[in-house]
Amino acid sequence: MRVSAAVRRAACIACCWWGGAAAAGDGLALEGSAGVEARLFARTPFYPEQSRHAVAVVLAPVWKSSFGAARSWEAVLAPYLRMDVSDAASRYFDLREASAKVRHADNLWRAGFDSVFWGVAESNHLIDVVNQVDPRADADLEAKLGQPMLSYTRFLGSFGRLEALWLPWHRERPRVSARSRQRTDSGVAADAVHGLGRFRRHDDWALRWSGSLADADLGFYVFRGLSREPDVGDGGVETYRLIRQFGLSAQLPQGNMLWKLEALHRRGHGRPFWAHVAGGEYTIAGAAGDLGLLFEWSRDHRDASAPPTRFSRSAFGGLRYRFNESADSELLMGVVRDLTHHAWLHKLEYSRRVADTMRLALVARAIDAPAASPYAALRRDANLQVSLSHNF
Amino acid sequence: MRSSIGMLLLALAGTLPLPALADGDAAQRGLQIAEEMTRRDKGFKSFRMNMEMVLRDRQGQSSVRQIRAAVLEVDGDGDKVVMMFETPADTRGTVFLSFAHADKADDQWLYLPSIKRTKRIASETRAGSFMGSEFAFEDMTAQELRKYDYKYLGDDKLAERSSAKLERIPRYEGSGYTRQVMWVDAERFIPLKIEFYDRRNELLKTLNFSGYKLHENKFWKAGTMAMENHQSGKSTVITLSNYQFRAGVSEQDFDPQRLEYAR
């Protein structure tokens, strides 16, 4: 559990090396975003120490440098800085990416902090296992921490690609601060960690194949390492168990319908179990915009000794509308029905470009659940999130 | 052989007043013109280019999208196209890959850099807008010969150039058009103008091609494609520049497994 000084040193060396590599490159580009995010709540919080509203400034610059043609190098540095205005414990930074990639013909080497996404479903990122999620950055658990890795990818032409990853440090799931309204536990959460958070030296491995077979896009992987999902013990102590997991993803287009499936088999969290999410996305393209109809069904057979999930038996339905216009407006309405805990999770999202480089996003969330459910602390937390970001 | 007859007919058409053609003849001649267009555009292998799309709404507000693209010719099927978005900034790094097919729905993928995710797109409905513009997907993908039934409508002059008027009716599922009327340059066999008629057979859009330049001594490529939507009052102008033929484009650049590393 000890913060590894070695990894700090390694990160520091990586950064220095990166700086040198970037300076030597023939192109250094700065991209990224800077924004303000406010979450406004209609009702007072569940716990007395929680603050009512939250306002944060988010900086996410990305420096990129690449050079070489036949053997091409690319270095990326993408720190993430989040400063909550009223809650000092919710101010932190992370390295979303600090990596170097070398590409030569059908080979790709990658070293450093990076993230990968494995999966096809919208409501439940069931099989996405490499990166730890960052609940502080996004209440919907879409934000992820950078994962230290060394990976080798071999592109096999029409046979897809094969990727091997060595993940030498495990990252713990960050806790939201005691003042945050995303808090669900009654115990006082440990102080949020500033800086890069905690690392634990552990050799995690993953091997994944992905490719196309006829019209379908497929992916298979095997992962062996510490789970990204914590077990919460007495007094809120979090531990991570060693798991072995097989994952599968498939998507198949058929006319205007895209069928999706993710499935996993996991050992190490109690009794070995299967879980899956299956569904589809039907697109109706029109003159004024494209309407997408989304539906997904999740089933998770884990027993009570495994970390809890909201997807043990749940259904998701959603509508997505993309307006045909220059501002790229998009509207998303979704609801998850957790049949195990008799809860409804509502979400309404709208975003549009308000100037060439500015994007406005509005997200409304509400949870309708019984008092005796894991959602108890969130029942009063219907909120509206307003964010404005400048992209450069 | 058929195309040389077509050429002859077309050459004659420019000089002689011909009696109205019977339907069968009009269809035959229409197909011959389309075949000649296809034949002349064949053999480019691959190229890269830059696209700038200017979208204008009814109020005159505009926004600009800059895209780098690479095109790979596929024998016996539609072309492969990869597009990399550069502006607006919130779309930078987005990559769109499409394999056009004459006889079935196109294969499409979209890479989203913010979450490093490659999404498959299922859309048989080709009438959908291409990136919010007045161009539909079916206007952007390869114009395969087998996609349409053709009919020769007569000759016309367009901007001082002799041209043949050609009607084409989509044969594929999910088109937003009942028919298109195309003006084809009689000498160079390239489109000069296309009128698009919606499902109610009313004029929906007009596309004007201009700024043609000859590349590799063989291929005429338009510099500007201006689409005007008569029903919505919106328009989109695409400016194409920096054509580079066989500029190190390979099959690898069109691999859905490599979209993250597209360039």
Descriptive notes:
- The complex is a heterodimer of chains A (392) and B (263).
- Chain A has 392 residues and is mainly beta.
- Chain A is globular, with a radius of gyration of 21 Å.
- Chain A is built from one helix and 20 strands.
- In chain A, the strands form two sheets. Chain A has an 18-stranded antiparallel beta barrel. A two-stranded antiparallel ribbon of chain A has the order 10-11.
- In chain A, a hairpin with a 3-residue loop joins strand 14 and strand 15.
- Chain B is mainly beta.
- Chain B contains three helices and 15 strands.
- The longest helix of chain B has 19 residues.
- The chains are: A mainly beta (392), B mainly beta (263).
- At the A-B interface, strand 8, strand 12 and strand 14 of A face strand 2 and strand 6 of B.
Helices and strands, with pairings:
The complex is a heterodimer of chains A (392) and B (263).
Chain A: H1 5-24, E1 28-41, E2 54-67, E3 71-84, E4 92-104, E5 107-114, E6 147-155, E7 161-171, E8 199-213, E9 216-226, E10 231-232, E11 238-239, E12 242-254, E13 257-268, E14 270-285, E15 289-300, E16 313-323, E17 330-338, E18 343-355, E19 358-368, E20 383-391
Antiparallel strand pairs in A: 1-2, 1-20, 2-3, 3-4, 4-5, 5-6, 6-7, 7-8, 8-9, 9-12, 10-11, 12-13, 13-14, 14-15, 15-16, 16-17, 17-18, 18-19, 19-20
Chain B: H1 2-15, H2 23-41, E1 46-56, E2 62-72, E3 80-87, E4 95-99, E5 107-112, E6 117-121, H3 137-140, E7 148-158, E8 161-170, E9 179-185, E10 191-197, E11 203-210, E12 213-215, E13 219-221, E14 224-229, E15 235-245
Antiparallel strand pairs in B: 1-2, 1-15, 2-3, 3-4, 4-5, 5-6, 7-8, 8-9, 9-10, 10-11, 11-14, 12-13, 14-15
Helix pairs in contact in B: 1-2
